[in-house]
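Workshop exercise sheet. Pairs work together: one partner reads the sequence aloud, the other fills in the structure field after running the prediction. Swap roles for the next sheet.
Pair: D.N. / O.F.
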Amino acid sequence: MKPIELLLRCYANKRNDQWQAFCIDLCLAAQADTPEEAQKKLHFMIVDYVTEALTIDRVHANYLLRRKAPIKQIATYHYYSFMHRMGKLKDGLHMLFKETLPLVPGNCAH
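Structure field:
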């Protein structure tokens, strides 16, 4: 596995009064009142999801760890990424971030 494959692509945006955070590499989402809280919730969802995929559901781990988000969310991530590189994503309503793919120690897999 390449080191870059250990980084999960994520973004968050504000919709109405709530922040939504998405992980496009695992098709996960979280919602909260602040961007930090949404990012934290998403982080814990990722940890739980990967842990279960590699332990309880390890028979299906290949599928579960390759489950991509819908094309609309992937396109949104790439649009935000492009706008960020162009210096135009400074409205405070959108953010990009990476999460590290959690690695479950071998002794956890039963």
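Discussion prompt: The chain is about 35% helix and 25% strand. What would you look at next?
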